[in-house]
Amino acid sequence: MLKQFKKASRFGVVPVMLIPVALGALGAFVWNGVFNVWLFLVTLVGAAAAHLFSNMINDLWDYKSGTDTAAKETVDAVSTNSGFLTNQIWSVRKFAAVTWGLFAVAAICGIVLAIFSGIWAFVFGALGGLIAYFYVAPPLKFGYRGKGYSEIAILLSFGVLPVMGAYYVQTSHLDLRALLLSLPIGLLTTLILFNHHFLHWQADRQAGKRTLVVVWGERRALNFSRFLLLLAAVMLIVSVIAGALPIYGLIALPALLPLSQVYGKLKPQNTSHAYLPLMGASVKSAQLSGLIMIVCLFIQGLI
């Protein structure tokens, strides 16, 4: 059952949420000299539950809308959902029960953090939950509109909100440096979610899911993907200049080079499977650069 849960919730991608939470808490440790391990652990559990809820509610609504079924039936598409609904491994009722169970865990953690740190801890979590739900759920359906709403939603959910939220939990106040710290890792996570649309953009178009890749086409979307990588690198440098990261935080920049090299191997038009290396490199670069930033902040806090 645990193995099934991990597959259904796509547990393996949870580091993209835990890394920004760790960055925010370390920011509090470095800049304010405070770190409550218990509040940090509750924040981690709540953020992880919220992320897994986001994964599963995404699958649930994409299945109901027919997007995941279209991806399965399209010859060239690479399906990125768990497959538990399209392959009928779990019933919709069971899948929904686990999904909302994760939401309940996240909500309880948010209430606990609000009691000990302040109401904004709950507000940050609630905003993240609303974005996660309405990313694919009607009437908002950020992921279906193709106007950049989904990219902004991801930047907030996996960058700004977890970093600033984790910082607030530790300090009960906000800091501009936390916002700056959230942008490099948030942009890199946005890049992961943006690049994964290349794997099944034709199936998305067939199902009426208007991602930017569908709206712009491959050539323009690839150019924007490259721009996001460049912007993440620039914001990393800005974070160092502003004092959100120590000068040696710049060693996170080389972690982006393998991803930049993958772009050079892509043509203006490619098969869906040709984007698998781009997707893999996006995940590796985001996680490696995030871990380097964590180590740099931890060292700064010790010295």
Automatic annotation (TrEMBL):
Keywords recorded for this protein, A-Z: Membrane, Menaquinone biosynthesis, Transferase, Transmembrane, Transmembrane helix
PANTHER family: 1,4-DIHYDROXY-2-NAPHTHOATE OCTAPRENYLTRANSFERASE (PTHR13929), UBIA PRENYLTRANSFERASE DOMAIN-CONTAINING PROTEIN 1 (PTHR13929:SF0)
Pathway(s) per entry: Quinol/quinone metabolism; menaquinone biosynthesis
Residues annotated as transmembrane: 12-31, 37-54, 95-113, 119-137, 149-170, 176-195, 227-255, 275-299
InterPro entries the record matches: UbiA_prenyltransferase (IPR000537), UbiA_sf (IPR044878), UBIAD1 (IPR026046)
Signal peptide boundaries: none
Protein's UniProt name: Prenyltransferase
Entry's localization field: Membrane
Protein's membrane topology: Multi-pass membrane protein
Chief location of this protein within or outside the cell: membrane
Superkingdom, taxonomy of origin: Bacteria
